[in-house]
């Protein structure tokens, strides 16, 4: 089942269930609590797809595929090998944008790259889950693009602007509750051409390992998300590029890259 | 004005304004939007103080006082000197607890310490603020205790469990909208005895610097918080300890430390 967060023209955003890949059956409520059909049905082509959810806590595995780890070591000049344990990291809600929204490249950004990632969406509050029970708290899965500025990633003490500049975290297009990770492949296309391709399950630490280890120390809540990391290397992106991240069974997250507008306005 | 988030016996939590340090004038709404008095007044002594807010994004300056930076370098064996620029970090909402709630020391934690910190609460959406205008987006200030397990902080690839284990982030007791940073001192008492004391304004990078630099790349939203870092060194905490963090004009955040209960229950 595909949970879609959308806005119909002139209406507030709502959740709905995608049917036959072209229409949305609107519900009152959310996937995380009580919900019932409103009776309204929308054509997918006539609504705006919104970010599937604003996470309560936005977790990210970071380095979690072997090829990508080697490239990261090369970037930082740090010969550190694979992480020895599943230590989760964080991204920030300000940076989220939806399917088909623009990623804005700041005027002082030099080396912007994509990272196509599987996203786990938590549906139930969970603590002290064994690896065997770990997936019991998962509502479903979506796609993320962990857009990164590599020079800031190397120079800064944290990932705040390299990873969390406004618009650097496309997520969507929807939450799929049925997913066969073992059969899934992640494909990233740049301007229509396949540039990155990997088996989605080729993780160093898998979803069960992360959830079990995390819930040993912390509570997962409905609306938390965990981005599972990426493999391979991205080319350097430029204004006008279109990046599509497709994961088997989950759909395709597409975003275009634009330049920061001149004459930025101070607001508060 | 002191914005207090509280629960009266048998009622849902609400915001109110603390008056004469002993009673709360309840409002309908929140400090971040429209609000009006409900007419109800509660005795402070008869309500439960709640976490002042669940931040939308939970920012933390981390290393931002010179003495603390030297001690951190000693801990990690890393001779890195002061940060060269104001790079903001993150903490996680799962870890928040309120004034007078317990901090739970996990059974496998070895070296737990306090960090008394000034917390900035954002009240207005803000982007591209100059240092001169930076404070225009601030609603007020509160107090945080950035409880940390130092061995995990040194061993793990991220601060996920060293800083964000459930209950490791006491925040409160309320949000004070009037604050004289220049006159403020931070005092931390352990079991009633002063153990740490520093000028709150002695930051390496001040609030204006952080907000201006952050909003060059990202949007701050109402309900974001920025924890400004700590100075000095904490003794090692143990079960039964009571830690009070007091900042001039903001009040006192008090929490007691307890052991993790045996027979933890798996939940999802």
* Overall morphology of chain A: globular
Number-wise, the strands of chain A total 19
Nearest-integer average pLDDT of chain A: 95
- Chain pair forming the biggest interface: A-B, 45 and 45 residues
Uncertain stretches of 5 or more adjacent residues of chain A:
none
Please work out how many helical segments of chain A DSSP would assign. Answer: 4
Structure class of chain A: mainly beta
Oligomer: homodimer
Report the major sheet of chain A: 12 strands, mixed
The level of helicity of chain A is: 10-25%
- Named CATH topology of the largest domain in chain A: Fumarylacetoacetate hydrolase, domain 2
Q: CATH top level of the largest domain in chain A?
A: Alpha Beta
| Percentage beta strand of chain A | 35-45%
Give the CATH H-level superfamily of the largest domain in chain A: Fumarylacetoacetase-like, C-terminal domain
Q: What is the domain total for the residues of chain A?
A: 2
How large, in whole angstroms, is the Cα Rg of chain A?
18 Å
Mind telling me which CATH architecture of the largest domain in chain A this is?
Answer: Alpha-Beta Complex
H/E series of chain A: EEEEEEHEEEEEEEHHEEEHEEE
Brief sketch in words of this structure:
The structure is a homodimer of 268-residue chains. With 268 residues, chain A is mainly beta.
Word description of this protein:
- Two copies of one chain form a homodimer.
- Chain A has 268 residues and is mainly beta.
- Chain A folds into two domains: 2-49, FAH (SH3 type barrels, Roll), CATH 2.30.30.370; 58-259, Fumarylacetoacetase-like, C-terminal domain (Fumarylacetoacetate hydrolase, domain 2), CATH 3.90.850.
- Helix content of chain A is 12%, strand content 37%.
- Chain A is built from four helices and 19 strands.
- In chain A, the strands form three sheets. In chain A, strands 1, 2, 3, 4, 5, 6, 7, 8, 11, 12, 14 and 17 form a twelve-stranded mixed sheet that branches.
- Chain A is globular, with a radius of gyration of 18 Å.
- Chain A binds chain B through residues 54, 56-57, 62-63, 83, 85, 87-90, 92-95, 106, 124-130, 133, 136-137, 156-158, 160-161, 164-166, 214, 217-221, 264-268, and chain B through 54, 56-57, 62-63, 83, 85, 87-90, 92-95, 106, 124-130, 133, 136-137, 156-158, 160-161, 164-166, 214, 217-221, 264-268.
């Amino acid at each position: 089942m595909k949970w879609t967060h959308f806005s119909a023209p002139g209406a507030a955003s709502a959740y709905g269930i995608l049917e036959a890949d072209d229409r949305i059956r609107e519900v009152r409520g959310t996937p995380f609590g009580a919900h019932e059909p409103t009776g309204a049905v929308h054509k997918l082509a006539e609504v705006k797809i919104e970010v599937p959810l604003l996470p309560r806590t936005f977790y990210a595995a970071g380095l979690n595929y072997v090829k990508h780890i080697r490239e990261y070591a090369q970037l930082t000049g740090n010969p550190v090998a694979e992480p020895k344990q599943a230590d989760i990291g964080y991204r920030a809600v300000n940076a989220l944008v939806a399917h088909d929204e623009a990623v804005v490249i700041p005027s002082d950004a030099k080396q912007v790259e994509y990272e196509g990632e599987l996203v786990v969406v938590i549906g139930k509050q969970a603590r002290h889950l064994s690896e065997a029970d770990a997936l019991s708290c998962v509502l479903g899965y979506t796609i993320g693009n962990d857009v990164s500025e590599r020079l800031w990633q190397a120079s800064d003490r944290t990932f705040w602007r390299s990873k969390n500049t406004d618009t650097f975290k496309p997520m969507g297009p929807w939450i799929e509750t049925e997913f066969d990770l073992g059969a899934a492949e992640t494909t990233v296309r740049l301007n229509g051409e396949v540039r990155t391709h990997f088996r989605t399950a080729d993780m160093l630490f898998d979803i069960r390992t992360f959830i079990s280890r995390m819930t040993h120390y912390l509570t997962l809540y409905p609306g938390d998300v965990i981005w599972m990391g990426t493999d391979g290397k991205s080319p350097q992106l430029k204004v006008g590029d279109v990046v599509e991240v497709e994961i088997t069974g989950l759909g395709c997250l597409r975003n275009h890259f634009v330049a920061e507008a001149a004459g930025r306005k101070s607001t508060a």
